[in-house]
Amino acid sequence: MNHKAGMAREVILQEARTLQTLAERLEEEPFSRAVDLIVQCRGRVVVSGMGKAGLIARKISATLSSTGTPSLYLHPAEAVHGDLGRVLEEDVVLILSNSGETEEVVRLLDPVKRIGASIVALTGNKDSTLARWADIVLDLGTIDEAGGGFAPTASTTAMLALGDALALAVQKERNFAPEDLIKFHPGGYLGRSLLKVKEIMRSGEKTPLVHEEDPVKDVVLVMTTTPGRPGAAIVVDGMGRLTGIFTDGDLRRRLLEGPPGFLERPIKEVMTRDPKRIDGEKLVSEAHQVLRNYRIDQIPVVDDRDRPVGILDVQDILDFKTP
User: Fold this and answer.
1) Which residue of 118, 224, 235, 270 has the smallest Cβ count within 10 Å?
2) Mean pLDDT, the chain, as a whole number?
3) How far apart are CA 55 and CA 285, in angstroms?
4) HSE value, Cβ hemisphere, 13 Å, CA-based, for 93
């Protein structure tokens, strides 16, 4: 085995073992208390840490913010030089330090207590100064760093995992739904896929609507002249309810197969009956999954009475995914 790749595998395995151990020894009572404290927090979760732990603290703060919990990162050294003004009595201060004895972190403890904010410690040393000052201690346990222990590796991985677990447990307790998430993720693929079908579907004059008694030639004309050329026509009955769909692919197949006079026949005789449909309140990501699963390019969008209100084309989703 290549010694470089071997070293890489050992580092990864060491960090994986650390996470496995962390999951097995997670103490339910303090973790649950920490979740409840954050859920009930009337202020913000202020996350702090020094050095590599500080980088992890920034990420945890960002995860909290994006999942419905107001949060900010506080540099412990800058905090004692004026930035403590960001901390309020109703805040929860989550402090990361593997040793629990980091000088800048220890100096932060008394001022935070004087303000009246609660302290949650995320540390690998339950007997540390940080742990003694904290209201709740999330214990990482003793961790062997990968690669000889010259730099934080497994310990920061454990911090990140436990911080993510805390943020997502809080998200679940808040019943933070996908439609809430879009408020904090308006950009990028995630935000776009969390929008609803009704927000990107083709509607109004862009909906290729035909009656089931219309001849095929008239349906083809509608498909051709509808703005955006959707590549399909939605077929309805006399009550305006969806009964079928007719696509460009259907047209090509019928032209090749016959029979004579095909274009004069009513569309109800050649359309695809009972097609897949979707509610406009569904997420774009759900619609995309339906299109992929059934290998179709268009899907009618219907209301609660099964009346078409629009059509969604796979190209609409592909275009929408591209910023």
Assistant:
1) 224
2) 90
3) 32
4) 30
Non-local (6+) Cβ contacts of 136 within 8 A are: 30, 33, 34, 37, 118, 119, 120, 121
- Express each pLDDT in 188-197 by its tens digit: 555 566 688 9
Q: Count of CB atoms within 10 A of residue 69's CB?
A: 21
Report CA torsion sign: 121, 122, 126, 128.
negative
Residue 97 corresponds to which amino acid?
A: S
Q: What is the pLDDT of residues 176-227, one digit of tens each?
A: 765 555 555 555 555 566 688 998 899 999 999 999 999 999 999 999 999 9
Please, are residues 177 and 194 in contact by the beta-carbon 8 Å criterion? no
Report d(CA 278, CA 291) in Å as an integer: 10
Q: Which domains does the chain carry?
A: 3-176 (3.40.50.10490), 197-321 (3.10.580.10)
